[in-house]
Amino acid sequence: MTASCIAVMAPGDMGHAVGKVLGDHGHDVITCLAGRSKRTRGLAAKGNFRDVPDLESLVTQADLILSILPPARAIKQAKDMAAAMKAQGATAVYVDCNAVSPATAAETAAILAEAGGPFIDCGIIGLAPGPGRSTKFYVSGPDTAPMTALDGQGITVIDLGDGIGRASGLKMAYAGLTKGTNALYTAVLMLAQRLDLFDELIDEFEDSQQSALKNMRARVQRLPADAGRWVREMEEIADTYREAGLPGGFHDAAADIFRILDATPFGNETRETIDPDRTMEASIPVYVDHIKPKA
Fold first, then answer.
1. Helical (H) or strand (E) element with 243
2. What is the per-residue pLDDT for 294?
C-alpha cells in the first residue's frame, strides 16, 4: 500500500499506539483534538499525530478513518462523521474498530451508507501495538482491502470475509472471556468479603486455585481505570448473546460489577496513574463499600 492519510478517532490508550506504528510506516496520521482532554492531547503528541481543526477537514483529508473509541461513543462518532462527509461530499473508508455487537456494527454501517461512505467492520484483539508486538485487527465487509493492505505495518490484519458483523462478533466472544473473567474474579472476591470469608477463601485458592489467584492479584486492583469504558462493552456482549439466542445475563452482571468499580475513588485513575503498590487485598474492601444498597 502506498502511503496514505489515516485518521484515528481517537488517540486514547489503543488509538495513539495504532497511529504511531502506522506513522512509523510512512502514513500521514491525523486526528481532531477540538474539545479533547489534556491527556488525549498528550497521547496524540506521543503518537506523532497531526491535528486538524474539525471533522470536516478530517474527512476531506483522510483516505481511511479508524474509529477506536469506548463503545458507548461509537454510534455518535459515526453520525458525526457521516454528517461531516455529507457536508463535504467526502467518502473516506470508515473502519469501526470498537467493541460493539454485530447489530451495532450493522447500524453503524447503515449510518455511513447514507453518507456514501464505505464501511469495514473491525475487532481489535490484544494489547496496543509497540516494539516487538503486533496487535490483531480482525476485519470483515464487502471490501476489506484498505485494511488488509496495512497488514504487517505494525498491526496484523486478518480478513474474516464479507459479512458485516463477523469481526465484531469475534471481538464480543473473545472479550466475553477476557474481561468477563476479570469481572467474575472481582465478583467472587467481593462476595467473600461481604460474607466475612475473604481470608478463608484466599487460603483455599492458595491451596487449590493458584493460577486463578495469581491472575486475580495481577488484575483485580487495576480494573477501575478501565471499568467505566467496559460497562458498555459488557452490555454489547450481553446483547450479542441474546441476538444469538443465548442468555446474556452473565455479562449484564459483569457490567454492574464494572459500574461499582468505576464509582470508587480508583475509577478516576488512568493506566498511567494506577497506584502500583495497591494490592488486590486492599482494593476489595473499597469496592464492597461502593455497592449500592438494594432499593
1. helix 224-243
2. 77
